[in-house]
Write a structure and sequence with these properties.
Largest sheet: 5 strands, mixed, barrel
Strand content: 5-15%
Number of domains: 2
Structural class: alpha+beta
Number of strands: 5
Strand order of the largest sheet: 1-2-3-5-4
Length: 222
């Protein structure tokens, strides 16, 4: 009966397991780099990469395949920093698939032996889809969020809802995000206790209206 280390090594000798650990490691470390402080992705990624490297020492790895997978990551990242989906993303997928197929097919190994060490095609396709989705959707979304202007102070209240703590006819007081503010009703007068929405900031005064309420256009009778 195998002990725990022997069992672990036996599992790591499976090229599919090694390949999956390699991808999990890349995703985890990259996720931590773009969201520092979350810890779980980083720790998971580092552990997965360490186990993948151990597995690589047990298997006839083609380091050109490893390099191609890493190049594909670079292409995915470059694509994530550019708008749209273009040549960089498509190139990343092609390079990733090529690197994955070569990962455990060393040039020095006889074809018959190499054929036994290939990764499951379904796993390769799933890995390509997963990597592309992670970089082109999640990482790009993270980058887009960082590019948004960071509002602080009263400007951060734009679009927030609150409650009128006094009658606004048109001036009064409101409570938004747990703080009391002087406000002016932008449309019809607002009664105490009614819900309000912040639509503007003028110094330390908020312009508010009832949610989804807009001023009615004035019709000239002249």
């Amino acid at each position: 009966m195998m002990n725990l280390p022997e069992l672990l090594l036996a599992v790591l000798r499976d090229p599919n397991v090694a390949y999956l650990l390699f991808l999990i490691g890349i995703i985890g470390v990259t996720g931590e780099a773009y969201h520092p402080g979350t810890l779980l992705p980083g720790i998971t990624g580092v552990v997965a990469l360490v186990l993948a490297l151990v597995a690589f020492t047990l298997l006839p790895v083609n380091w050109l395949g490893v390099l191609l997978v890493l190049v594909s990551v670079g292409l995915f990242l470059a694509e994530a920093h550019t708008p749209g989906v273009g040549l960089l993303g498509a190139g990343g997928i092609v390079v990733f698939l090529l690197g994955s197929l070569l990962l455990f097919v060393p040039f020095s190994s006889p074809f018959a032996v190499a054929a036994l060490l290939t990764i499951s095609p379904l796993l390769v396709v799933g890995g390509a889809i997963g990597m592309a989705a992670f970089f082109l959707l999640l990482i790009r979304a993270s980058l887009n969020t960082r590019r948004l202007p960071a509002f602080t102070g009263p400007e951060a209240l734009l679009g927030k809802e609150g409650v009128a703590t006094s009658d606004l006819a048109p001036r009064g007081a409101v409570r938004v995000a747990g703080e009391d503010w002087t406000a002016i009703a932008d449309a019809a007068p607002i009664s105490q206790g009614e819900m309000i929405e912040v639509i503007g900031v003028e110094g330390v005064m908020l312009r508010v209206h009832r949610p989804h309420e807009w001023p009615r256009p004035t019709i000239s009778t002249e």
